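Hey L., structure's done. Input below.
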Amino acid sequence: MVITSTGYYNTGSSAVCDLLKEYRSCSEGVYAGAGCEHIILYTPNGLFDLEDKLLIGNSIHRSDEALDTFKTAMLKLYKNNFIWFGNFKQYFGEKFLRELDHFVDELVDYKTKTTWYYDYLDTKFSIARVIKNTIRKPLHINYSGDFSQKLVIREKGGIKYSFVTAEKFYSAAKQFINTYISFSTTDNDKTLILDHFLLPHNLYRLPNYFDDNIRIFVVERDPRDVYIQQMNQRHQRSESIPMQIDEYISFWRDLRRIEKPIEDNRICRINFEDLIYDYDETVSKIERFCGLNSADHIDPKKYFTPEKSIKNTKLYVGNTEYRTEIEKIERELPEYLYLK
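Output:
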């Protein structure tokens, strides 16, 4: 089985993965100690984008681009170590490339040796074309295109067409995902932890891709604390989300609004704060949800320490620097506040 944890933005989802690492029955597999997030499903031009292009927006021009950009995105993750994601070459080796080729080939229905305008990268001046057409013109030999410009065309093996059915796509995609999981696993007797394998915004896709072999935690956190923590760290790193207070509130509301709701017994929502203020009960809840044995919790508080994490909670209490902003968040986002 796979367990993953996810959140919205800085909501503390890694705390669940840290907790799970304390169980001898759980493992991060080949990624142990690397702190990696697993983004192949939802990365731009990843598997979910491929699904949308082939099953929703497909056309005579669409599928070739869809397959090419998906493969390019996967090769990028294969070749490059982005510190907290990617680096498949080191972790999986060339077997990942073979599986990638197999998956893409399984989706291809037809091939030709020509190109579409999608493959036209640029035009450039060509003296050879000028000379050729200067000779052709007085001889009344036809030529196509511009007199002096030639097309710069992407080098590739022609056009691939995919008019795949939903049934075939999801069957192949499940196999691709299961192979990725098997590559990540080092001990089949242990539950595999894959941090951020899914995001809250794509959980509605869950029934098409997974059987009962996954458990997902969605971690919530008080937006007052998210705001204050980001403001306190604004001199250390650039802002990833809007931090002007009205924009922050609007962004947070819109971020939650665009999420497609799903009820699924493989999804469990918890509050980051409950891991701290109601530690024992929340740990028991996690164990029950994942079918973990409490006797396997052999390193309690080794990786997730409530006594340390508590400093990242209730930052709004007694805060005078951002009192006005805190009050505005309380008025505008009451449904997301932690009130226990």
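The beta strands are 2-7, 26-27, 110-111, 120-125, 149-153, 160-161, 191-193, 214-220, 267-271. The longest strand covers residues 214-220.

-- N.
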